[in-house]
DNA sequence: AAACATTGATACCGATCGGTAACATGCCTC
DNA sequence: GAGGCATGTTACCGATCGGTATCAATGTTT
């Protein structure tokens, strides 16, 4: 048990597969662990271990754990907007279809994967210190989400488009939170229909 | 700095004010700290200190920190149902008014106090281990909340009363989560109107 | 081959984590 | 006044926390 410690390439057809940079492996491992187990529940040591790296490599690539958390959330935000564009893109001239596509995709993700809700929303719960570098990311993300929803609801010609946008945002956030305890068979099961009903109430 | 360690009665008119049992002080301090700073962020030592007690007294009254957390959440649940009864009670024969009263009270609490959302909802985020004794409390609470909302929506004569109940529960949970990052001026500002619109969409 | 940057390995730091043992002090009741 | 009970005090446990220093082993580039 003294030898053969590192270099677990696991599978990969050829053993000469180029090893990804330590920073990237650590980054990915951190995102995965933070999401699945929670930010405060995961120590830097276990991140390095999961990445097949060492704690030193982590601290060579990131200033601190807090900074690493902030970076992870920034990446979550980037991916969220990519998902947003990909989902609403096909309905450029149909705001109603764009909104419904969002809730459809959301309901689908609840059923298949992502049982741990929203990484950024979870961070809002876990990180109670306003000085934490990740809090700014959380706030910025939710502000931008609100802005985008408002734009869609305005384009929709909704009577009270600001109220509708807020209502839809509350439904989204509620879906994330509710999923953590009651899963996809809980209130999430009605997510899309509720969103549709709310939209219709302000348009039809 | 060696003397005068304990016995901080703070104020209280008479100094002969009977000291509350250590268990109660610890319990209250734990609830307050868990809510304000998060469960994992608070150590047993700081709980005892905040309660003017010692760690030993904590472990004489509670099996473990996990068990203390579960007890705290059970108390949060009890208080939640008391609030529920007090809020809906005056509208025993008017389900619509009962529902709106809930959202009115919720919006009011968002504006005045409770900027840290819902203690039970937060616990759902923080406690990722299914074996944690508090998880059962979280799940039971959300199930019961769903049951009560369904009963109200059924009494309301809503067309799709299960969808309406789920939608309202998502709005509630979303309000808690959203409040953590954007406060009462965020989507929470539209909480009551969104709930009303959703209710009306299934009744009128 | 020399110089370089990246990484791993290991040991360490002080602090805090959840949890326990042993003893002392007070208070209320009999 | 003698028990018993609740509590405080202090010291301790092994483990882990976030973070750092030092050195060896890589490969890559020129």
Sum this structure up briefly.
Two copies of one chain form a homodimer. In chain A, 67% of the residues lie in helices and 0% in strands. With 204 residues, chain A is mostly helical.
Kindly describe this structure.
2 copies of one chain form a homodimer. With 204 residues, chain A is an all-alpha fold. Chain A contains 9 helices and no strands. In chain A, α1 packs across α4 (65-88), α4 (65-88) runs parallel beside α7 (133-155) and α6 packs across α7 (133-155). The longest helix of chain A is centred in the middle third of the chain and has 24 residues, at 65-88. The radius of gyration of chain A is 20 Å and the shape is elongated. Chain A starts with 21 loop residues before the first helix and ends with a helix. The interface between A and B is large, with 51 and 51 residues. The structure holds a DNA duplex (30 and 30 nucleotides).
Reconstruct the topology from this structure.
The structure is a homodimer of 204-residue chains.
Chain A: H1 22-37, H2 44-50, H3 55-61, H4 65-88, H5 95-112, H6 119-126, H7 133-155, H8 161-182, H9 191-201
Helix pairs in contact in A: 1-2, 1-4, 4-7, 5-7, 5-9, 6-7, 7-8, 8-9
Chain A binds a DNA duplex (30 and 30 nucleotides) through helix 3.
């Amino acid at each position: 048990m003294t030898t053969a410690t590192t270099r677990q390439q696991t599978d990969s057809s050829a053993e000469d597969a180029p090893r990804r940079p330590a920073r990237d492996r650590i980054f990915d491992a951190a995102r995965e662990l933070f999401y699945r187990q929670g930010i405060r529940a995961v120590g830097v040591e276990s991140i390095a271990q999961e990445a097949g790296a060492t704690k030193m490599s982590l601290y060579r690539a990131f200033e601190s754990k807090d900074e690493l958390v902030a970076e992870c959330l920034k990446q979550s935000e980037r991916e969220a907007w990519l998902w947003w564009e990909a989902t609403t893109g096909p309905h450029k001239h149909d705001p109603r279809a764009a909104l419904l596509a969002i809730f459809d995709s959301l309901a689908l993700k609840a059923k298949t994967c992502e049982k741990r809700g929203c990484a950024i929303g979870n961070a809002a719960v876990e990180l109670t210190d306003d000085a934490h570098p990740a809090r700014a990311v959380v706030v910025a993300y939710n502000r931008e989400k609100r802005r985008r929803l408002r734009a869609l609801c305005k384009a929709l010609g909704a009577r009270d488009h600001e109220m509708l946008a807020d209502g839809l945002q509350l439904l989204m956030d509620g879906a994330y939170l509710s999923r953590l305890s009651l899963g996809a068979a809980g209130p999430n099961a009605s997510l899309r229909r509720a969103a549709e009903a709310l939209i219709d109430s302000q348009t039809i």
